[in-house]
Design goal:
Number of domains of chain A: 1
Shape of chain B: globular
Helix content of chain B: over 70%
Order of helices and strands of chain A: HHHHHHHHHHH
Helix content of chain A: over 70%
Structural class of chain A: mainly alpha
Oligomer: heterodimer
Order of helices and strands of chain B: HHHHHHHH
Number of helices of chain B: 8
Shape of chain A: globular
Largest interface: A-B, 21 and 27 residues
Strand content of chain A: under 5%
Radius of gyration of chain B: 18 Å
Radius of gyration of chain A: 19 Å
Structural class of chain B: mainly alpha
Number of helices of chain A: 11
Distance between the termini of chain A: 34 Å
Largest sheet of chain A: none
Largest sheet of chain B: none
């Protein structure tokens, strides 16, 4: 592979990261707006998350006495993990970077770095709620990991590779594998895991400020100003990237195969449409759902683990 | 005796649905939901028979599929739904094992079924499988359902929940029979299905009487004799 091609791929990755970053607050806005309209409220508008971010960036960060460097670094680490995941997941283009393995294992590890940074941020100020949120967050993260690995394994059996770009490209070129039982079971399991990982209902209520039910909100209680902006943007990025991954696994059409400008433009438009639709569906689904009790969460995740496991068995049986 | 593309797709989808419904039955506590899931499972079983009939070019098997669809997809779930409404209690509230460990149990049972049925799948993968049907490679699905049905019978206390487990068990046995023997004769399937219907009716009535007489629907209440 020549240097020009490598430069092209890197350029494509940069375009993808820029698109996802611009899209993330809008997806969040669409989700909130859908939810507000369905609940009979006017809603703050699709652009509100961007306006929130701009407001937070202008403010001065206030840090509690006794906080350490973690409070400064952790928000940036969370953001960076989201950006790395955005570069690795095939969202606009399904062509792997030659030097970087685009495995879901790598993506999950990158996201896990962000998860740990967020948990440390919650612990940093030494408040009771932050510690509680971190402990719950780590419990959910520990339950999510086996399901992710199982689902990826099931998806990679028909393709013969765990590289995400190849899986998405194979599903695009051979639509029959999308409707296969193993594929459906694995994608459903992955979708449940994405909800748990990004702190949406029924695992965590993103709109709550009730102390006893908070998970994500409890961890960011002590952050303010630009720190909070980085944390929020990082978590929105994570949601958008994972939603984009699920969308591309379910409906892989429109993902560009090469780096030509036309294909890229089509890929960007397709990604925006898919992610915004999925975000609206997420908001609509959350209206009809109640948060699970924390001790019922392992049941949900065990269910999704069982689905992923059955996907693996089924893909061996009915290949 | 080989499967063409469409029949393979149908077979894959139906076996996937059978597995999925069996797992969901362990997950859900609601009996009304269990009745709906059993209906889905019956339809999936009928689809399985249709795909085998398509592979075998056997018109009689289509009749069997119709019987399966009518009895296991419609009548038995209706009987169960009536039983649930009659007793008025929808939730299985006396589980012996919580759903989380139940689901982990399902994954272990699926592995066990896969390992145990390996001789059958290997025999059909080679040319040696003479008496086996075209789809015997999917036998582990049937075995998994049998084991999951047993798990349900053992871990549930309410009479109707145990009936659900028994019906899953029966569906699993039917699946194994269809997959290994390339379908069963019409008369045999009719006899077996009517037998199962009779059992379902008797258990539904028994559960109703149990509720009326004792105010409880747990079979644990039946552990001593009175005159």
């Amino acid at each position: 592979m020549s240097a020009v091609e490598v430069a092209g791929r890197v350029l494509v990755a940069i375009v993808q990261v820029a698109v996802v970053t611009a899209l993330a607050p809008i997806v969040m806005g669409v989700t909130r707006q859908t939810r507000a309209r369905l609940e009979g409220r006017a809603g703050a508008g699709v652009g509100q998350p961007w306006r929130d971010l701009r407001k937070l960036w202008r403010k001065r960060p206030i840090r509690a006495t006794g906080t350490t460097a973690v409070g400064v670094v952790a928000p940036l680490v969370l953001l960076a993990s989201g950006l790395v995941a955005g570069a690795l997941v095939p969202l606009v283009v399904a062509a792997p970077l030659p030097q970087v393995p685009g495995d879901l294992f790598v993506v999950v590890s990158a996201l896990l770095v962000g998860t740990v940074a967020l948990a440390l941020l919650g612990l940093d100020a030494g408040t009771a709620f932050g510690g509680m949120g971190s402990s719950r967050h780590m419990m959910i993260a520990a339950l999510v990991e086996p399901t992710v690995l199982m689902a990826v394994y099931a998806l990679s059996i028909p393709v013969g590779s765990s590289t995400l770009s190849l899986i998405v490209a194979a599903r695009r070129d051979d639509p029959a594998t999308i409707a296969s039982p193993a594929g459906v079971l694995a994608v459903v399991a992955l979708a449940v895991v994405v909800l748990a990982e990004t702190g949406r209902l029924p695992v965590d209520n993103p709109a709550t400020h009730l102390e006893l039910t908070m998970v994500h909100e409890a961890m960011v209680l002590e952050t303010s100003g630009p720190d909070l902006a980085w944390v929020e943007l990082g978590s929105w990025l994570r949601l958008t990237v994972l939603l984009g991954l699920v969308a591309n696994l379910m409906v892989p059409w429109g993902v560009a195969g090469g780096a030509s400008p036309g294909a890229l433009l089509l890929g960007v438009v397709a990604l925006a449409a898919k992610v915004v639709l999925l975000g609206a569906a997420l908001g609509a689904g959350e209206v009809a759902m109640a948060k699970l009790r924390l001790f019922r969460v392992p049941e949900l995740l065990a269910g999704s683990f069982a689905l992923a496991f059955l996907a693996v068995t089924a893909s061996y049986l009915v290949a | 005796m080989s499967l063409d593309g469409l029949a393979t797709q149908l077979l894959a989808l139906s076996t996937g649905a059978l597995l999925l419904t069996a797992a969901l039955l362990v997950w859900r506590r609601s009996l009304a939901a269990a009745a709906r899931l059993l209906a889905v499972q019956g339809v999936a079983l009928a689809a399985l028979v249709v795909s085998i009939a398509a592979a075998e070019r056997d018109a009689e098997l289509l009749g069997v599929a119709a019987v399966v669809l009518a009895l296991k997809g419609v009548v038995i779930p209706l009987v169960l739904g009536r039983g649930v409404r009659a007793t008025g209690v929808d939730r299985e509230n006396a589980l012996r094992v919580n759903p989380t460990s139940g689901l982990v149990g399902v994954t272990l049972l699926a592995t066990l079924a896969y390992l145990v049925s390996r001789p059958i799948t290997q025999a059909t993968a080679g040319i040696g499988g003479t008496a086996a049907g075209p789809a015997a490679f999917a036998v582990p699905v049937g075995l998994t359902m049998v084991l999951v049905g047993l798990l349900l019978v053992v871990t549930r206390r309410r009479a109707l929940s145990q009936l659900v487990g028994f019906l899953v068990l029966d569906n699993g046995i039917a699946t194994v029979a269809f997959l290994t023997a390339a379908g069963v004769p019409f008369v045999v399937e009719l006899g077996v299905s009517l037998d199962v219907l009779l059992v379902a009716l008797i258990l539904a009535v028994l559960s109703g009487r149990l509720h009326a007489a004792l105010g409880a629907v747990s079979v644990d209440e039946l552990n001593e004799l009175r005159d």
